[in-house]
Amino acid sequence: AMIAPNDAELGFKLYLQIACIADRCASAAYGSSKAEEGPEYSAIAYEIMAQAFLLYEDDISDSKAQQRSIQSMVGTLLSCKTFEKDDYEALVTKTAQYAAKLLKKADQCKTVMLCAHLFYTGDKDDTKAFRNPQRVLECLQRALKIADACCMASSAHIQLFVDILDQYVYFFENECPVITDKFVSGLVALIMEHMENIGAATTDSVAVAEARGHFDQTIRYIKMKKNDEETAELFAPIQV
């Protein structure tokens, strides 16, 4: 807190680190003879996260610093394992709201799609897992809408669509129930259409060339999964 007035971003990072430490103390307590201390440490972790969020709102105004801070929020929340469900839901909902308010549309898109991971954590048998598939879909669809607006402004933003495709494939492979093969197939077709419409005038663009290469790599991954015995049935309906 003493550092915050001079370097808000550093103060913010320190808050996140302290929250992680408190969460680890809670985990250690739950796994020891002092399990009764676990909730106390979890509550401390939550309060420290709340302080970090207040610092973000009041003192971090630079757009790139905000993007970095939200990425750090996501990483911290995914690493913490002992929050009560209501506390965790409050924190991740607030993080997603911050992402949706970033000044630059491309930054919004990147952070909103990243926030999707906050709503689908852990294994399905994990009692501490937090899974809200509908919120995952909402994040990805919002990211698609933003990416479309970005691409209308500049074809170089086609990379955003490819990044979102990677997220769809990830959640599909991890059996998020609302992410179906139709979503993946539809996005593949949409990206192909965008690539064709970009035209010869921009084929030499470094950003577009990198997006094409990334897209080809993703398509190869999907085809590999279609040919893998363990995943062939799951990936079979996807059209590439």
Descriptive overview:
The protein is mainly alpha-helical and 240 residues long. Helix content is 71%, strand content 0%. The chain has ten helices and no strands. α5 runs antiparallel to α6 and α7 runs antiparallel to α8 (181-198). The chain is flat, with a radius of gyration of 20 Å. The model has no long low-confidence stretch (mean pLDDT 92).
Q: What is the radius of gyration computed over CA atoms, rounded to a whole number of angstroms?
A: 20 Å
The secondary structure category is: mainly alpha
Number of strands: 0
Please give the largest β-sheet. Answer: none
Q: Overall mean pLDDT score?
A: 92
User: Which blocks of ≥5 consecutive residues have pLDDT under 50?
Assistant: none
Report the span from N to C terminus.
52 Å
Number of helices: 10
Structural shape: flat
| Portion of residues within helices | over 70%
Order of helices and strands: HHHHHHHHHH
Strand content: under 5%
